[in-house]
Structures are given as structure tokens and as C-alpha cells.
């Protein structure tokens, strides 16, 4: 009799990128982090995380194939698998495949999204029964952006960004996203901020931002976009100003550096407007790549 071939069980989840509609940075804390007040917004650039069972005793493996993404225990997704196995008393015999659609080291939380996707996928694969809220709390162990990446949508982040409150927003927003083809180190950007601004006030998201989101007013939101890390990012990489200026000259409603950069994002009216701004940015030669996205979106099992 021919042995039956058993196909390994697997779970696949689509994880969106994040942008910070508002990012206000307060003073450095005793633990080395900075106090933040930020509005996270998940947009339709995705990494696909696939977690598959491996034979008993084979341990964790990870593949990605994208330059700059580690395929060993230094990857947050790998660490998430180890921790989730420990919490659920499972043997961590899984293979994690990461298909990148989120720019790497671009200030859009790609590594955090992969970590969050691994937690979501393992919870489903092993039928562990963790609620989304419990996974959000667990995600804080791995980084400030991971809890939001578990949740998606639009949310207010405080503390170091890991304490989330839902934002009651209306409508859909359209974005043009310009990648730089190079990296900016987040710790370096924060150090530059501290050098430029040695005395920081307690951070607070502007009421204009919150009002624009509540009413779905994209024009008001475009004028109110804010990021305290933009000045240090521009100081470290002055060519980003050309990118921001080119997008505004092309008619964007607003522009800012995403997170710690170097990716730049532009709010536009609708998809047709996004195409116009995308074409103009591509023609200007100020970015390595230019893509369109919309938000808010959430993680989705495939």
C-alpha cells in the first residue's frame, strides 16, 4: 500500500503597512523610549505571512528572500513564534514565509507587521483561543508598533505607542507613497531629534487631526498632518525635502515623512487624484518607487 501524503497545515494572513497621520514625540523616558502620542493608520500595502507546520522536532525556520530581512532568530517573526509556543506549550515546529510588499526600513512597520502576522497565524493554526485584545497586549513585548499591527484600522497610540485607543473616523483615505531606496535608522532619527530639540513638552495629538478624522474631511486632514520626526529625518537625509515638495507641487492635499522615514506619504482626494500625483512623482525622479494605497484596512486571513 502506498503511504498517504499528508499536506502540512498552514495559515496565511495579509498584514497591512502603517503610517502615522500624527506623530508627536515627548521627552525621553528612563527606559530609553520616548513618550509618544500618535495616530496610527493601516494602509493597503501588504506583507503576506504564511505559517506552516513542520515535522515534530524540526524547530522554527523562516524564509523571505528580501534584502535586509533576516531569516534567523533576530527576526521579530521568529521571536514571536518562540514566545507564542512557550505560552501555549506547543513545540515550535513551524516554517514562516514572509512575502514583502511593505518597504523595508521605510518607517511603515514592516517588521512589526510580520511579527503581528505570526502571532495571528499561530493563534489560528494551533487554535489557541487568544482574543484579538490579548494578542494586542502580547504584541507590546516585541515593539511599540506591533500592538497596532495586530489591530489595524486607525487608532490613537500613547505611552511608547503600545497603548491603543480606537479612533472613531469616517470614510476612506487615499495615499500616494514614495519610497527612498535607502534606509534611515530609527534610533538615529530619535537621537537627532533630541539634539535638535533638547527640551520636549508632553506630546498631544492636535484636535484638528481628530476632528478631521471624525468628519472624514480629507482636505482638513491634509493640512493638519504632523510628524515631530520629520525635521530630524530631513536633517539626516535632505533630499527628502525634494520628494515632499514634488508631491505638494503635484497637487497633494498634504505630505509628510512616514514615521522615522525615509518613506514619504501624500494624502490625495481619491484614486484618480492618486494616479495623477503618482505619475508626477515618478516623472520627477525624486523617489525609488511610487505606489498608491488606501486606508484604513485591517489584517485579513487568506
Describe this structure in words.
By secondary structure, the chain is an alpha+beta fold. The chain folds into 2 domains: 158 residues, 2-Layer Sandwich (Ribosomal Protein S5, domain 2), CATH 3.30.230; 123 residues, Alpha-Beta Plaits. Helix content is 33%, strand content 28%. The protein is built from 10 helices and 12 strands. The strands form 2 sheets. Strands 1, 2, 3, 4, 5, 6, 8 and 12 form an 8-stranded mixed beta sheet that branches. It is globular. The mean pLDDT is 93.
The count of DSSP E runs of length 2 or more, i.e. the number of strands, is 12
Residues in helix, %: 25-40%
Distance between the terminal alpha carbons, to the nearest Å? 35 Å
- Outline: globular
How would you concisely characterize the structure shown here?
With 302 residues, the chain is an alpha+beta fold. It contains 10 helices and 12 strands. The strands form 2 sheets. Strands 1, 2, 3, 4, 5, 6, 8 and 12 form an 8-stranded mixed sheet that branches. A 4-stranded antiparallel sheet has the order 9-10-7-11, with helices on both faces.
In terms of topology, how is this protein built?
Elements: E1 10-28, E2 34-53, E3 61-63, H1 76-88, E4 94-99, H2 110-125, H3 132-139, H4 146-151, E5 154-158, E6 163-166, E7 173-179, H5 186-196, H6 207-215, H7 218-224, E8 226-227, H8 230-236, H9 240-249, E9 254-257, E10 264-268, H10 271-284, E11 289-295, E12 300-301
Parallel strand pairs: 1-8, 3-4
Antiparallel strand pairs: 1-2, 1-12, 2-4, 2-5, 5-6, 7-10, 7-11, 9-10
Amino acid at each position: 500500500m502506498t503511504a498517504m501524503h499528508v499536506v502540512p497545515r498552514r495559515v496565511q494572513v495579509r498584514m497591512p503597512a502603517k503610517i502615522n497621520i500624527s506623530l508627536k514625540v515627548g521627552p525621553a523616558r528612563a527606559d530609553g523610549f520616548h513618550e509618544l502620542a500618535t495616530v496610527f493608520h493601516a494602509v493597503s500595502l501588504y506583507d503576506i505571512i504564511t505559517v506552516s507546520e513542520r515535522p515534530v522536532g524540526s524547530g522554527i525556520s523562516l524564509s523571505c528572500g528580501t534584502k535586509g530581512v533576516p531569516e534567523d532568530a533576530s527576526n521579530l517573526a521568529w521571536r514571536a513564534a518562540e514566545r507564542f509556543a512557550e505560552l501555549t506549550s506547543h513545540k515550535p515546529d513551524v516554517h514562516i514565509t514572509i512575502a514583502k510588499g511593505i518597504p523595508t526600513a521605510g518607517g511603515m512597520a514592516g517588521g512589526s507587521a510580520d511579527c503581528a502576522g505570526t502571532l495571528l497565524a499561530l493563534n489560528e493554526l494551533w487554535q489557541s483561543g487568544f482574543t484579538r485584545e490579548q494578542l494586542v497586549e502580547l504584541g507590546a513585548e516585541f515593539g511599540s508598533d506591533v500592538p497596532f499591527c495586530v489591530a489595524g484600522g486607525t487608532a490613537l497610540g500613547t505611552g511608547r505607542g503600545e497603548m491603543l485607543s480606537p479612533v472613531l473616523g469616517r470614510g476612506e483615505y487615499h495615499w500616494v507613497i514614495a519610497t527612498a531606496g535607502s534606509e534611515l535608522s530609527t534610533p538615529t532619527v530619535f537621537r537627532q531629534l533630541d539634539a535638535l530639540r533638547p527640551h520636549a513638552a508632553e506630546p498631544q495629538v492636535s484636535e484638528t487631526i481628530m476632528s478631521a478624522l471624525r468628519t472624514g474631511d480629507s482636505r482638513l486632514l491634509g493640512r493638519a498632518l504632523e510628524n515631530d520626526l520629520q525635521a530630524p529625518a530631513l536633517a539626516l537625509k535632505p533630499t527628502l525635502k525634494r520628494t515632499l515638495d514634488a508631491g505638494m507641487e503635484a497637487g497633494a492635499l498634504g505630505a509628510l515623512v512616514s514615521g522615522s522615514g525615509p518613506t514619504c506619504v501624500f494624502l490625495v482626494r481619491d484614486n484618480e487624484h492618486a494616479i495623477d500625483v503618482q505619475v508626477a512623482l515618478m516623472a520627477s525622479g525624486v523617489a525609488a518607487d511610487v505606489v498608491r494605497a488606501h486606508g484604513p484596512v485591517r489584517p485579513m486571513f487568506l
